[in-house]
Structures are given as structure tokens and as C-alpha cells.
User: What shape does this take?
Amino acid sequence: MRVLVIGNGGREHALCWAISGSPLVTRLWCAPGNAGIAEEAECVPLASDDIPGLISFVKENSVEFVVIGPEVTLVAGLGDHLTEIGVKYFGPNQIAAKLEGSKGFMKDFCARHNIPTAAYGRFKDAASARNFAKSLGGRIVVKADGLAAGKGVIIADTIEEANRAIEEMLEQGLFGEAGSEIIIEEFLPGEEASFFALCDGKTALPLASAQDHKRVGEADTGPNTGGMGAYSPAPVVNEKVADKVMLEIIEPTVKGMASEGTPFKGILYAGLMIQNDEPKLLEYNVRFGDPECQVLMMRLKSDILPALIASHDGVLSGFDLRWYEEAAMIVVMAARGYPGSYTGGSIIKKTDTTAHPDNVKIFHAGTLRNENGDLIANGGRVLGVAAMGDNIAAAHEKAYQAVDSIDWPEGFFRRDIGWRVIAKGRPGHEY
Assistant: This one.
């Protein structure tokens, strides 16, 4: 099978790494890819949002299956164009992708189908938004309706902070068109976790659990990012919680989308808030998370490609995936200044994967090679250093040993990935 992966981040590196090991693959491309992906696949100089260019490439190279990584490409409707030319792909179509592309659409959908989530309101004018925020009181969440690269969520501790966020989004255009409508939500206390389910339009197959770290600073402080690290499994998603998530959130979503004429195929990534074993939906993403995808691919025993094809073909019923019992952790190394302004082009040394044991993998997120062949930073989140271990503590130790061996003075990372598990000393995950 001739396969094309779309994207250039750590998620796509992990997918290419996993897919490249499939005996089904005869040729693997990635558009546009990065310096790390180039070791797993042939990189194609096409932007992930260049729909005409990607379709032309698929036709000219007889691509048989396309794996769409980024949400922007899904929301732009690449899948619909692939369907028109008779090529299979992994991911939802453009309408179904609105579960991530519009937070207002997602919240209204949850309301129609009684899916547990936070109380909310949708607003396009600042005055109404401020009045609603005041009525909620306490901590308030302000979200841009559209895609904002993981940065369109502001948690306001006071009404003054909420009003400032409302002004920045609606009146100052902080997130451009993505913030022309905003969602005001009540703040949900608890512990966040990521829950992934592979869907084929009618069947949902739960994957391993994971937990990421969105805030840039240690102890989960500072502004939100695309993710500074993750681990799997997430002990907060115990068997009881997982059953509730499937029964109350995932399955009603799959049934609801089908009943509304927009069957969902691909990955449903539920961002959850869990308190006293009661999960509520914070938001949906319609693709693998980054960096959660990396730890999931580390732990996956099964060949991923047949599962992705089964999702498209609607034959997940009876399908099974096998997972390693070991835990996995990834630590993200980012350019100094991220998630604000940062400078690219700095040289990164000592990333040779052969210097690390088999249970350590360096996933590239924002890298390229200069004319001298040096590895240079080309993004905010640049590397993801992942490791497997008997438990979270062992994975933590191996990941940070590898991080400390990398020579990149212009980068930074959090030292406390997995701190919730470590602090709580959950059974089997002591530190």
C-alpha cells in the first residue's frame, strides 16, 4: 500500500514511525514532514493546507491511503476532496470535523444529546459576554470558537481577567476570525485527562488513556500551550471512569453524529475533567493529540495501519488493539519564549537515536536541516523525548536522562512531567 501522511509535527512523526513498521506499506510519504520524519518517510515539500497541491500529488503518485494529522487540514475538508477522487483516508469529513473546528457547534451538540459538559453561552458581542461572565461568577473559562493552535482558551480567576479576555478576543481580534465568536463556560474543578476512541461512523473502539500538560510552567502554571509533555496510562482514568466516558460521552456522540446525518470516522479525542470519578467533556478534538499520540504509538503493540483503514471502511466492530503494559512518557523541548514569540534557527546537537536504548525515542516536532546538515529548531515545540518503563517513574527517569543528554542551550522544558501521578503515589506508579 502506498501511504501519505499529512503534517509536520511530533504527532505526524509518531504516526510515520508506527506506520513505517507495517508490512502493508510499500511506500510512505509525509507532506511536508520534518528532519526527524525524513528518517521514516519520504518528505514532500507541500504545506498541510495546500489542498490542490496535495490532491495533485495523490493522483500523480497513485497514493492509496492518506492519514490526515492536523486539525486545520481536516476542517478545511481535504477528506471530502479525497472522496471525490476515490481515495481512502483516515479522519472525519469537513462537516464532522466541526466538533473541533467550532467549539460552539460542539457545545450545542452536547446539549442536544445530553452529554455532560460545562454550562456555557455563545457570544459575538462583548457586552453580552461580560454580562454572562458576571452571572457565572468565580473562575470562568473564555474560549475562541475556532481553531487557535491550542492557545484559544483563557482561564480567568477573576471577573476582571474574564473581561480582559473578552475584550482581547472580540474587540482586539487576538485570535482573528477564530475569535470572532467566543464561548463563556463555567470552570470545572478536577483533574484533566485525554481519552481517545477510534470510530468508524457507528462503532467506537477505546484506545489507551493519556494525560498531557498544557501549561508552559511547572506545577501547571503559566499560559496554555499545545502541550509540554504527556504520559500513558493515566491512572485517573480507571476502569469505572473509562466505562462512564464510553457510555455517557463517546457512544452518545457517535450515535448523535450518525442520527444527524454526519457519521464520525477517525479519532474522537475527548478532553475530560474528572472529579470523584465523574467525567465531564471539556472539548473534542478530531485527531490524535500532540504529544499524546507519541506515547500511544510507543505503547501500541498492534499494527496501526489496519486499524486506520478499518475506521474508514466502517469495520471496527470486533476489531481489537493490543497494548504494552509498560508506561510511556514524553517530555517536550521548546524554543525559549514559547508560547509567546521565539527565535528559530538555533542548532541542536546530540540527538542521535542510536545513543539511546530501544525504549527511548526522540520525536521531532519543529526541525529541519540547514545547508551544512545541522539540525536546527524551526518552531515553538521542537523535540519530544519519549521513553518506556515498567511504570511512570521508570519512564520519567529514562526520558529525562535522554533530555539531559541533548545539547540545545536555546531550548527549555518542564522538569515535572507526570507530577500528578508522582505526588499522589498511585499504586504501581510510585516515584
In short: The CA atoms of residues 17 and 40 lie 6 Å apart. DSSP finds 13 helices and 24 strands in the chain.
